[in-house]
Amino acid sequence: MNIPTPHISATSADEIAKTVLMPGDPLRAKFIAENFLEDVTQFNETRGMLGFTGYYNGKRVSVMGSGMGIPSSMIYYNELFGGYDVDTIIRIGTAGSMQENIKLHDIVIATSACSESSINDNLFANINFSPTPDFDLLFKTYNKSMELGYTTHCGQVHSSDQFYNNLPKEVFENLRKYGVLCVEMESYGLFMTARKYSKKGLGIFTISDSLIEDVSDSAENREKSYTNMMKLALEVVGE
């Protein structure tokens, strides 16, 4: 894949670190760069999808928005892995709880993702391929979260194709019964793309609302206040 790519304007792979943290919101990427990183340079603003590279405790790391949903995010996953030779992408996003014990502001680390997305149709014949994150990275992240004292849950997540998705009650209850922890919109695509390129992917989420208790955070909190998740992802960079 030639660089610059159609959606990332960096002219050299050296402008982007080997590990990229990816929130959906480009303003959250800017917030992380401004509040956590030193010696920051901006490598992308194409289509408003801001990307920055800097240092966290001496470790070089990039942060970039992905947009909402699997189709948008997979554009950037493919271009970062395939064009800029990025080794690891850690999704840091928000999610809606689907279990009573998972509360607002808890952290979820995805062990796998299920989805109604058709992105892997025809790739594996009649086999329903189940994409998973990199285990070593997941294990390190969970241990670091315990060390930091965060309330953290590990399990399967649902990567929905639709934000305004009124699941039939039976489907919703079956997802809960079979242990799906929360719903988000991008990790299924990340895990698929990471497997495609033999790279590493991980999904870390802050619970921003609950489908059980009908509570929800403000837009400002979603952009700026989920610092535990941000710090957790930054702490495992390069470990």
UniProtKB/TrEMBL annotation:
UniProt GO cellular component terms: cytosol
Domain of life assignment: Bacteria
Q: Which residues carry out catalysis?
A: D209
- GO biological-process terms attached to the record: purine nucleoside metabolic process
Catalyses: a purine 2'-deoxy-D-ribonucleoside + phosphate = a purine nucleobase + 2-deoxy-alpha-D-ribose 1-phosphate; uridine + phosphate = alpha-D-ribose 1-phosphate + uracil; a purine D-ribonucleoside + phosphate = a purine nucleobase + alpha-D-ribose 1-phosphate
> Binding residues for a purine D-ribonucleoside, per the UniProt record?
H7, E184, M185, E186, S208, D209
| Gene Ontology MF annotations | purine-nucleoside phosphorylase activity; uridine phosphorylase activity
Name of the protein = Purine nucleoside phosphorylase DeoD-type
Q: Which species is the source of this protein?
A: Anaerococcus nagyae
